[in-house]
């Protein structure tokens, strides 16, 4: 099973279908070649993963802030028809509907023919005056659990025995004092840690004596990291696809502002037009998918765009939120 994270959703590259949350909170599954809707939910929900043409997602339970419902749905006509729906019981301090992204999150994936679902929640004291230590301690919670479900029925199979497999832990040699780590956007978050892809550990850095961004790449088993210059633009901003396969470098300070795309070997594979306001990025079947946030007429809009990686031509767009 191969599910790729894309802006605001997930994609199955084998079917060339992506499922994203739209402006009303409904999930829209779209043909990634044409941008046309294939099917959608008729209730607000968040996509988590795909198993063939089955979408797995979650939705807050109506009237119960301590419960989230997991579900699987398949396209029937233009509707995603529920295949199964199961409640995910949570501690009474969890706020499923919190607007703070770090307060509650769910991740899921297919592993060894099982659906592994991991939820993570955090809470802190939110009173006025600084509380006594025992009050702050009683109000502070951090918890993470993983359960496994039968992907066909939603029945729990082996609670707390499986953990979500990480993309790959990476470690690089100590960075010289003349270099600084470059933050990069990956999905909805900014990261500063090395990542692993293919056969190498990778990290983005700046050199104090020369502007731009360098890629440090250390092959598995090697002691030294190779330095690959990606840009000399001092104002460059980096984004890495959630699967770690591609690096996008916005170059606003170049004579001709541009947006080159690199493999983790340092090879440039695309040159896209400069996109002010671009955020998270993904690559699915030789197409770049990225979201752009802009404001016009006092309205803040976030839009998903698709471009051909070979020609850089725009393919389609879809409003995510406003």
Which properties best describe this structure?
six-stranded mixed β-sheet, 322 residues, mainly beta
Describe the structure.
With 322 residues, this protein is mainly β. The chain is built from one helix and 27 strands. A six-stranded mixed sheet has the order 15-14-20-21-22-23, with no helix packed on it. Strands 1-2-3-4-5 form a five-stranded antiparallel sheet, with no helix packed on it. The radius of gyration is 21 Å and the shape is globular.
Residue windows where pLDDT falls under 50 for at least 5 positions: none
Number of strands: 27
Treating each run of at least 4 consecutive H or I residues as one helix, how many helices?
1
Describe the sheet with the most strands: 6 strands, mixed
Strand order of the largest sheet: 15-14-20-21-22-23
Helicity range of the residues?
under 10%
- Mean pLDDT rating: 88
If you compute it from the alpha carbons, what radius of gyration comes out, rounded to the nearest whole angstrom? 21 Å
- Give, in order, the helices and strands: EEEEEEEEEEEHEEEEEEEEEEEEEEEE
Question: How big a fraction of the residues is strand?
Answer: over 45%
Could you say which structural class the secondary elements and strand pairing correspond to?
A: mainly beta
The coarse silhouette is: globular
Distance between the termini: 33 Å
